[in-house]
Every structure is written in C-alpha cells, then in structure tokens.
Amino acid sequence: MTVHAFEVTAADGTTRSLGDFSGKTLLIVNVASKCGLTPQYEGLQSLYRDLQGRGLEILGFPCNQFGGQEPGTDAEIQDFCSTNFDVTFPVLAKVDVNGPDAAPLFTHLRAEAPGDFGPANGFLYEHVKNTRPEAIGTDEVKWNFTKFLVDGTGKVVRRYEPTTAPEEIRADLDALLPA
Asked: What is the pLDDT of residue 136?
C-alpha cells in the first residue's frame, strides 16, 4: 500500500484522495499553531515557494494531541496560517496522529518510517521523556512538526523528527525532485 491509497479531509470538510498527488514529492507534516516549533511554518512555506514548481507538495495536518497546542477550529487554523505565515500549501482538517483514533494515513506513515527519536533531539527528547515516556522507543509521532517525506510513487522515504528544521530537508528534496 502507498500513501496514494488514502483519502483525507480538507479543512472545508470535503474529501481528497492522495492519489491526486501521484508523481509529486510530498512532505506530510503534523502542525500546530501554539507550539514552540510553530515558526517552522516559515521554513515550510519557503520550501514550498521554491520547490512547488519542481513537483513538491506540502500537506499540513493540524493536531491537538501534544500539549493542546492546536485548539482552534479548522477555520481558525486556516486564518492563523494565512495571516501569520502566508501559508499557501494545503493545511487540511485537524487529525489525531497517534492512538485509537489516529488518521489511517498517519498509522501508515508511522509504520513505514518509525523514526529515530533519541537523545540527539535535545530539549524535545527530554520533554517527551518526562511527559510521555511511553512514547519513547515506539513508532508514535513524538510531537508537532514531525515530517514524512514521500516520493512520487507514494512510497514513504523518510521521517524527520520535529527538531529537524525544514531547511535541513532541502538536500533530500533536491535529490527526489527533477532539476
């Protein structure tokens, strides 16, 4: 199964097939408006602006599972992203990324790229170790702004933990995208 087999809900409540992105390189990110990492929206938008013409699509999925840092409605989230970060990539409907109500897409992403979350993640590792110790050593998404890179065939290529800034992903994107 590939990412293209999944359907997701847009912020306006409509359903969208990820099959529509066949041939595109995807960066799928769980996002939040009130997180210390929220400024990563700037880096994500910069990547999108620079690389969309080469086939990059970024899909943001708001999630309120980490410290209640995405409490708004889908409409409020859209307004926040547009007003504060001039986001033009799709920010879809709010989802759970872990647990029994996790969106099937994120269950798939986690299974395909379980991550490598450890002490090298510094402050965030210490925070998760203290607040969610049961998540350490699992495939769970550990925090907001976890990023999944998907190639044009829908295969999950890599997972980037939240402390990886968008600009650090640029070389991997350049390698996947046509020149």
From this structure: 94
Any residues with CB less than 8 A from the CB of 155 and at least 6 apart, and which? 2, 3, 112
The verdict on residue 20 lying in a domain is yes
Residue range of the domain that includes 167: 3-94+143-176
Q: What pLDDT shows up at residue 179?
A: 85
Any domain includes 137 = no
Tokens for 130, please give them. Answer: 């203290």
What tokens does 83 get?
């007003």
Low-confidence ranges of the chain (pLDDT < 70): none
Are 150 and 3 spatial neighbours (Cβ–Cβ below 8 Å)?
Answer: yes
Q: How many domains does the chain have?
A: 1
Q: What are phi and psi of 46, to 5 degrees?
A: -65, -45
Per-residue pLDDT tens over the stretch 21-44: 999 999 999 999 999 999 999 999
Q: Where residue 172 sits, what CATH number does that domain have? A: 3.40.30.10
At 8 the three-state DSSP class reads: strand
What is the reported pLDDT for 121? 92
**Catalytic positions, please?**
35
> How much is the pLDDT for 162?
96
Q: Which residues of 27-54 are buried (b: 16+ CB within 10 A; e: fewer)?
A: bbbbbbbebbbbebbbbbbebbeebeee
